[in-house]
C-alpha cells in the first residue's frame, strides 16, 4: 500500500452495488434441490477478493443452497475495488456491494483506539483487528438492506472468533457463518509466502514458515524505505492535538485521514514504522508477523508523550490498566460491549486537558520526541 497511491478519488462513490444474473443452469439445479415454491436463502458475504473468500462464494451457494451477495469495504487498501466487484460477480455472487468506509474506520475505530493508547503488548498497532467492528457493522447493515439474517466471512481461528462475536453482539438474531472453519470447506492452495492485510492505519504481513531467525526480506515492506535508502538529514514534525485527538502537523490543520496519509509518507520516507513480532497461536505453533505502520507509530508516540506530560502519576498508573482493557476488548471482539463504550467515555473525559504540540524527530528508522508544549 504505497503511501503515494492512497489519496482519495473524489469520484469514488460512497456505496456501489451491482447485480448480475446467475449463470444459466444454476437456477434449475437449485430449484430441483429445494423444490418449487420454496424461498431461496440469501447470504451476505464479507468479500476481500482473495482466493479464500472467492472460493467461499461457490461453497456457500452449494452448501447452504443460497444466493450469495458480497460486501467489500474500502478501508484504504491498495486494491482495484471495481476489479474485486467484477470478480465477485463472475465467481457466482448475484450482487456485489462496495462501500467506502474509510472515514468511518478512522473516526469510529482508529481514533478511539489511539486516544485510549491501545497497543498490543504495549508496542504494536492493531490495524487489522480494528477493521473487524467496522466490517461487522457494515455486514449487518447490508444484511438488513437485503432482508436476510445470514452473514458469512472467511476469517479463521482467533480472527473468526473476533468477527463472529462482534456480529453476535450487534444482533443475536443474525446467523454468522465462519465458512473457513466449517467441515467440508477446503481452502485453496496458496503458494505465496506472505499473507497481507492492509488499510489506512497500516499493513500486517503474516510470514508462512518463517521462524524469525533471519531479518525479514525488504520485499515484505512497501510503505517504508530501507535504512540505506533514507535521507541523511532528519525530519521534524510538530503534531498538534486538541483534547487528545490529532488535528494536524507542522502548522497545517488536517482531517484525520489526511494526517494519517501525510505522516505515513513522511515517516515512511525515513524508514519509520517497521515492527517485527513472533506470535504464539492457541495450538502452540509460532508465526511471524511484520507490521508496517508509519503514521500509527508516530501518532502513538506523540500521543503517549502528551499524555505523560499532562497526567499525574496516579492517573498514568490507572490509564495503563485502561489501555490494556481496551486492547483486550479489540482482540476478543468485544468492541460493541458496554465496557468498551464506558472506557471511551472515561478517555474522552480525561482527554480534555490534552491539547498541545509534540515535536517528533524522524531519522534512519527511529522516531524520537524532541519537544513538547501544552496549550491549556
How do the strands line up in the largest sheet?
1-4-3-2-5-6
Q: For the report, how would you describe the main beta sheet?
A: 6 strands, mixed
What do we call the CATH homologous superfamily of the largest domain? Argininosuccinate synthetase, chain A, domain 2
Sequence stretches where pLDDT stays below 50 over 5 or more residues: 1-7, 21-38
Order of helices and strands: EHEHEHEHHEHEEEEEEHEEHHHEE
Can you tell me the number of structural domains? Answer: 2
Distance between the termini: 38 Å
Strand content: 15-25%
**Structure classification:** alpha/beta
Shape estimate: globular
Give helix % range.
25-40%
- Give the overall pLDDT as a whole number: 89
Radius of gyration: 22 Å
Class of the largest domain in CATH?
A: Alpha Beta
Number of strands: 15
Task: Give the SSE layout.
Blueprint: E1 15-19, H1 26-34, E2 41-46, H2 51-63, E3 66-74, H3 81-90, E4 95-100, H4 102-115, H5 131-145, E5 150-153, H6 157-170, E6 175-178, E7 194-199, E8 202-207, E9 235-242, E10 245-249, E11 252-253, H7 256-269, E12 274-280, E13 286-292, H8 294-310, H9 313-331, H10 338-350, E14 356-363, E15 366-374
Parallel strand pairs: 2-3, 2-5, 3-4, 5-6
Antiparallel strand pairs: 1-4, 7-8, 8-13, 9-10, 9-14, 10-11, 12-13, 14-15
